[in-house]
Sequence to fold (235 residues):
Amino acid sequence: MMHTGEQAGDLLAEGAEALLEAAFRTGDYTIAHARLNQARDVVHDRATEAAIADRLGWLLHFQALDDDRDTSRVDEELALFQRALDIRRDMGDLGGVAAALFGVGLVHQVLRQDWATAMPHFREALALAEHADVLYRSEIHRHIGFFYMIADPQPDQAAQHLSTSLELRHQHDDKRWLPSGTQALGWAMLAAGRQDEAVRLIREALDQAHMVGLRASRVSAIEESLRLAETGKIG
Fold:
């Protein structure tokens, strides 16, 4: 008979994969929601509890993005990332702390449109990024790059962070993350006045999106970015 700790870990892994498949390809979060909540019901160790809270936070985040940045569950999402952060700080898990700090910052930046609150979390996460896994390192650089592209325009800084983010995505063994990284670097090139390079990158992002079978809404968003880049506008 499977130990409850092993069961929670297996359910977490299944839920995490189902979450990404829903976010990138299907739009159906039913399996992800079921597996992650099942894992939460049987978990007995704090590290797994923190990981489940983190994944549930991401589930709410992806759903909010799918629903035009719906903020109706923003407090619940923030509480999940904060729970992961509190546990990981207490455990001294520096990589996990970096990931959870990013999650907290993400809520403030993306859903609350509050860069002033988000950036201290992103900067603290960046200081711990060497301890985090490659995808979270990519995400931290990505959103700091957005700060320098949108909130405090410094095109060179934006391009540097987004280039690093894309390099890290290439190191990560999941090509579903590549189109968004390539597209973001294209935006940075456009902001820096390098339109030809921007168009090339966003076309590459579109090719990547088709190659990995991204859902239609994601492909359409890249197509719209390409159209805007070709006219010299940031999408």
